[in-house]
Amino acid sequence: MASEELACKLQRRLRREEAEAGDPQPAPLAARVPEPPAPVLPASADAELSAQLSRRLDINEGAVRPRRCKVFNPYTEFPEFSRRLIKDLESKFKLYDAGRDGFIDLMELKLMMEKLGAPQTHLGLKSMIKEVDEDFDGKLSFREFLLIFHKAAAGELQEDSGLMALAKLSEINVALEGVKGAKDFFEAKAQALSSATSHFFLNKLCKRTWPSHQGASGLLPSRGERGDFHGGHGQP
Length: 236
Hints:
The chain is an all-alpha fold. It has a domain at about 75-175: Orthogonal Bundle (Recoverin, domain 1). Helices cover about 60% and strands about 0% of the residues. Residues about 170-185, about 215-220 and about 220-235 have low confidence and may be disordered.
């Protein structure tokens, strides 16, 4: 009896194990790894990218000229400026390029405008640079510096703008150099004219005083021939 019960228990256990082996439980799913979020650009980088894209569209539409990669030659790119004016403006540019890096940055432009007697606010200085800043680097190259005067001559600057004040004050200094040169030129011409006039009247006076001593050439008598003027003696 006891052996039969034990045999039944063993059979039930075998059937249970077979049932468990025939219907396996599904394996648990692996946890899903979340994807990293996309990087967010700062506001300044977003604005710079927008400005670059806008400029590219303007270049494609022909609204602006693309920047050249060749070596900058101010004499050929700005033929309306004389060589002397370009040299003077280059000297002024180097004077205020305190960092000697070939650029005038915001602080150097601030000092320049103060020296010229037309100080600007911080926003005014940034606006001045932005108007001619073709490469969006926030500072003025020598070409962009010359572009200020090109725009002023073409009437492309507002009369009350900081760039117009810079152009006017700088041109006054250059004009003074020209006025000084013209003054020297006309003084030399006046002196030459005065000398020629004095010689003309002296020659007329001598012709009237010594008419018999004039030769065929009409030249004045030599010093030894002026004796008639002193009573016929050859000594003065």
